[in-house]
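Sample intake sheet
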Amino acid sequence: MGIRDRWLLWRHTERRTVLDREATIDDLADLRRFACERLGVEFYAEPETTATDATVVAVDSDGAWIRRRVGGPAVARHLARDLALPVYDASVVGYPRRMREWDRRNRT
């Protein structure tokens, strides 16, 4: 993980009580790895809640997905810009159908 990512996380971290945990460098690394290893990845930013930090759901062209904490909307936008990926507000546009279909196919 690069120094820019560390600086960005630190810069956008506010002092607040968090019930779960805050975003880490590893969370951003997981999103980068997912985006670099797959085709057609899109980010869906989710707002912070009382229980978790702001998160991003990365969805590939097949519908496979991961969700990771990012620290804030600005971090999500910055990461998406660095990776040249589209980022959508999940509370406005929802999630893609392929994500739900992938979940249905891969239930354990």
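Comment: The longest helix spans residues 25-37. The CA atoms of residues 53 and 93 lie 20 Å apart.
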